[in-house]
Fold this sequence. Notes:
It is a peripheral membrane protein. By secondary structure, the protein is an alpha/beta fold.
Amino acid sequence: xxxxxxLRKRFGDKVALDGVGFAVRPGEMFGFVGANGAGKTxxxxxxxxxxxxxxxxxxxxxxxxxxxxxxxxxxxxxxxGLYQKMKVAEQxxxxxxxxxxxxxxxxxxxxELIERLGLTGRRDDAVETLSxxxxxxxxxxxxxxxxxxxxxxxxxxxxLDPIAVDALADVLKDRCxxxxxxxxxxxxxxxxxxxxxxxxxxxxxxxxxAGPVDELRATxxxxxxxxxxxxxxxxxxxxxxxxxxxxxxxxxxxxESGDDQEILRSAVNAGEVEHFGRQRPTLAEIFREAVx
Length: 292
């Protein structure tokens, strides 16, 4: 288990982190979300030992992180760190050797990742000739080549097309299934909601919400009743306190409170009821309310 405990960090007069904490269990994918400047990258740099915290600590399986334990981590920084003149396969193998793999093991691991990430046709091309999306794939291969015990990825999906997103997501799911804790930051909240077991929302250096995605959706934000009626006459919901929108020949009512049975009767009298049920807030809606 990776545990981030009460991290605090200042840069001059600016408070970057103010008591940030969360935990990621083995085999769990944790989405770390927040606006630009909220503290995500600072937190990740402290986890990796690039920055020192003013106070607080990061622990792995109950023990403080050391240089040796961090060497087993896979890290993908927000600012990419590739050698532009090196060929793709050579680069991934090189980083594998830096992490202690033998020549044959590094070659095999690089070949597997290059194939899985859709880079087979570019393996002998210099990194500088690749698109930004393909450079992103190479950066991920570099983070994964040594089969890390923990993955810390800063905006790994940035700039990727949908096919590349799917390939990356499949690789991360495989690593999770083998028991690896995965932490990644992203502004793509729908993707975070789709992939992650748990999420942490940071704003102004403070954690404003954290927990399993399903629990947050059940307890945070507004839960609305959604009613979809086909063929209803305009004004059928005027006596109700919700908001009605039109989608073709359908009227869609979203309402926060009221007598469900009364609402249902009004909908049945108005037309053909296609949907009637509670709608939990999306992660994007929870995020907007949490950081407001």
